[in-house]
Amino acid sequence: MSNQTDRIIIFDTTLRDGEQSPGASLTVEEKLTIARALARLGVDIIEAGFPYASPGDFQAVQKIAETVGTENGPRICGLARASTKDIKAAGEALKPAFKSRIHTFIATSDIHLKHKLKKTRSEVLDIVPEMVAYAKTFTDDIEFSPEDAGRSDPEFMYQVLETAIAAGATTVNIPDTVGYTTPSEFGAIIKGIKDNVPNIDQAIISVHGHDDLGLAVANFLEAVKNGARQLECTINGIGERAGNAALEELVMALHVRRQYFNPFLGRAVDSTEPLTNINTQEIYKTSRLVSNLTGMIVQPNKAIVGANAFAHESGIHQDGVLKNKLTYEIMDAESIGLTNNQIVLGKLSGRNAFRTRLSELGFELSDNDLNNAFLRFKEVADKKKEITDWDLEAIVNDEIQQAPELFRLELVQVSCGDHAVSTATVTLRNPEGKELTDAAIGTGPVDAVYKAINRVVNVPNELIEFSVKSVTAGIDAMGEVTIRLRHEGRTYSGYAANTDIITASARAYISALNRLYGAIQEQSKVNSSEAVLTPQG
Ligand SMILES: CC(=O)SCCNC(=O)CCNC(=O)[C@H](O)C(C)(C)COP(=O)(O)OP(=O)(O)OC[C@H]1O[C@@H](n2cnc3c(N)ncnc32)[C@H](O)[C@@H]1OP(=O)(O)O
Ligand SMILES: CC(C)C(=O)C(=O)O
Ligand SMILES: [Mg+2]
C-alpha cells in the first residue's frame, strides 16, 4: 500500500475522543444519531468508542457497527490499549461492521514510559508487534498510535512504527496528545517519519492532535504538506481538555484553499477535485446536532460553524458585501449547508410538508419521533407566526433529546415580578408513572422552578452552567436552554427549546436530571446493590 491516497481520509473521533470532553457523555441512542449524521456527512471512518471502557461503550460501538457500518457506510473503528482484553473487546464489538478497524495505542514518550506505564523502551518495543498481530486476528485493518508522539524521541518512535507496520499495522497515527508542538515542528515530525521509517510506504500516515495551544488545525495542515493522508478530528473540535482538531475547520481549509494544497497531493494546482469525501453541505447541521446532544455550546465567533461566522456587522463590511460578497467572504454560507433562514412552514402546514422539509434539512426520524415532533411543531406554530428552518431544527433536537424519559414534566407554573417572591409549582410524572407536585420559592423564576423540581426528583446535584439563547430574532422567538449539572465529579447536560423560556428551562433541567438519574441506576445495577436514591413517591 502506498501512503499517497488521492483524497485526504477523514477519521472522525467525535464519539470517542470528543466524548472525552468533560460533561459530553452520550447515551447509546444519541451516539447512534450522531453516527448516522457522520455517515451522511461522508466521513471515511467513525471511531465509535472504546469498547473495553464500559458496557455502554461496547454496546454503542456494536450498535453503530451493525446499523451504520453497512456495505456503503463508513468504516467503524474501536479504540483499544495495547492489551489483549481491550483488543478482544474491540474485535467483538466491531464484528457486525462490514468494514472495521481496531485502533491500538501505547505511549512512546519517556515521560509517559517512566511515570505512567512504568515500562522500558525495550518492553514497549516487544508489546507493539505482539498486540498489532493479535489485533490482526480480528480484522485486517489495524491502526497503531505511539501516544504522545509529539514529545517522543524520534529515533525510538521510528523503531516502534517500523515494528508496528511489520506486524501488520495499515495506518500509523501520530498523536500530538498534549497539543505541544508547533506547525513547523509537527510537519518536520511527519517528514522525519517518511524519511526514516523504512517500511512507511506500507501504511497510511495519520495525525491526531489536541488544541491546548490552539494549534491543532494548523499542525494538521502542515502535516498534510509533509505526507499525512488521514486526519483525526471531531465535530466542533470537542475532545479531551481544549479539544481536538475541528473537522469543519480542516475540511473547509482544504476545500477553500484546494489550489494551495493540490500540489502536496501530487495534483495540478488548478484541479477542482475535492480533497476529501465530505459533503460540506452537511457540516452546519451536524455541528448543531453534536452541540445540542453533548451540551457543548459553540462559541459565536467559532470558525465555520459559529453564529457570527457569516455575519457582517460594521457598515464598511456591509457596504462591501452588498456590492460584491467576494469583498469579505471567502466561502458561501450555503457551502456548509446554512440556508437563508427562509420561512418554510406555518400552522396550516400538514405532516407531508413537515416530513419533506425535515428530510431536506437532513433529519431522518422514526415514525414515532416524527409524530411527536409534528405535534410540537403545531404547538409552536400556534404561538409563533413564522417557523424558520432554525425553529424546526430546535424542535427536532428537543424532541430526539428527551430520552431516556424517566421523569416527565407535566406542568410548570410560576409567579414572579419585581415586587413578588418568585414562586414555582411543578408536576412531574416519575419513572413509575405517578404524578408528583411540589412548589418552591427562589431568587428568580428559573431558580424557583429548579428548586421545585429538585424537591420532587431528590437527586443531589450542582448546577454548573445555564445558558439561554434565542433561536431566531423577534419577541416570539423560540428559546434554547442548555444546562450542565455535576454529581460526584461527573457532568450531565440537558437541552430544550420552547417559545416559553421557563418551560424550556424546566425541560432542559429534567433532561439533564434524567441522564444523571439513568447513570445512577446503571451504576447501581453494575454494583448489584440496592438503588442508591429514592425518588419521592
Ligand atoms: C490519549 C487518550 O485519549 S487515551 C484514551 C482515554 N480513554 C479512556 O481512558 C477511556 C475511559 N477509561 C476507562 O474506562 C478506564 O481507564 C479503563 C477501563 C480503560 C482502564 O481502567 P483501569 O483498569 O481501572 O485502569 P486505570 O484507568 O486506573 O489506569 C490505566 C492503566 O492502563 C495502563 N495503560 C495506559 N495506556 C495504556 C496502553 N496504551 N496500553 C497498555 N496499558 C496502558 C496504565 O499504565 C494503567 O495501568 P496500571 O493500572 O497497571 O498502572
Ligand atoms: C488514543 C490517542 C490517539 C489519543 O487520543 C491521543 O493521543 O490524544
Ligand atoms: Mg486524543
UniProtKB/TrEMBL annotation:
Q: Which SMART domains match?
A: LeuA_dimer
User: Which cofactor does the UniProt annotation name?
Assistant: Mn(2+)
Pfam name, any one: LeuA_dimer
Copy the pathway line from the protein's UniProt record.
Amino-acid biosynthesis; L-leucine biosynthesis; L-leucine from 3-methyl-2-oxobutanoate: step 1/4
Q: Does the keyword Lipoprotein apply?
A: no
Query: Which keywords does the record carry?
Result: Acyltransferase, Amino-acid biosynthesis, Branched-chain amino acid biosynthesis, Cytoplasm, Leucine biosynthesis, Manganese, Metal-binding, Transferase
Which reaction is the catalytic activity of this chain? acetyl-CoA + 2-oxoglutarate + H2O = (2R)-homocitrate + CoA + H(+); 3-methyl-2-oxobutanoate + acetyl-CoA + H2O = (2S)-2-isopropylmalate + CoA + H(+)
State any GO CC term.
cytoplasm
For region Regulatory domain, the annotated ranges are 408-537
**Annotated EC:** 2.3.3.13
Q: Does the keyword Cytoplasm apply?
A: yes
| InterPro entries assigned | 2-IPM_HCS-like, 2-isopropylmalate_synth_dimer, AIPM/Hcit_synth_CS, Aldolase_TIM, LeuA/HCS_post-cat, LeuA_allosteric_dom_sf, LeuA_bact_synth, PYR_CT
Molecular function as annotated in GO = 2-isopropylmalate synthase activity; acetyl-CoA C-acetyltransferase activity; homocitrate synthase activity; manganese ion binding
* Top EC class for this record: transferase
Superkingdom of the source?
Bacteria
Q: Any idea where the Pyruvate carboxyltransferase domain is?
A: 8-269
Q: Where do the annotations place Mn(2+) binding?
A: 17, 208, 210, 244
GO biological process terms, semicolon-separated: L-leucine biosynthetic process
| Family of the protein in this entry | Belongs to the alpha-IPM synthase/homocitrate synthase family. LeuA type 1 subfamily.
Q: How does it assemble?
A: Homodimer.
The role this protein plays is: This protein is a Fe-Mo-cofactor biosynthetic component.
Classification via HAMAP family: LeuA_type1
Protein name listed in UniProt: 2-isopropylmalate synthase
Its ancestry begins with: Bacteria, Bacillati, Cyanobacteriota, Cyanophyceae, Oscillatoriophycideae
What gene, per UniProt, encodes this protein?
Answer: leuA
